[in-house]
Amino acid sequence: MQKKPTKQPFDWMVAHNPPSLKQTTIAMRQGEIRDRATVMLRLGFAPAHVKERLTANIKWEFDKIGKTKLGDEVGGIVDSLIHKAEPRPAAHARKRATKQE
User: pTM for this structure?
Assistant: First the structure.
C-alpha cells in the first residue's frame, strides 16, 4: 500500500525556486532601457539619437566587464516605443496655450 503525499499545512514549508539571477538581471536591465527610452522620446529626442545614446551608455557600463547582448536589443526596444511615447509640447507652446485660456 502506497502512502499518499500529504499536503503541507503551511505555504512557507514548501520550497519555491525563484527565477535565476541572470533572468531577473536581464529583465531589470531591459526595463531600465525601456524607461530611459520612453523619457527621451517624450522629451522630443529623435529615435536615432535615443538608440545611439542608450547604446553608448550600455557600452560604457560594460566596458570593464565585457560585451553584453543588451546593446543589440536597444534598437528593438526603442522601435517598440516610438508610437507609444508622445513628445511633450515645446515650452513656448505650453506658455502660449496657458496665456490664451
Answer: 0.61
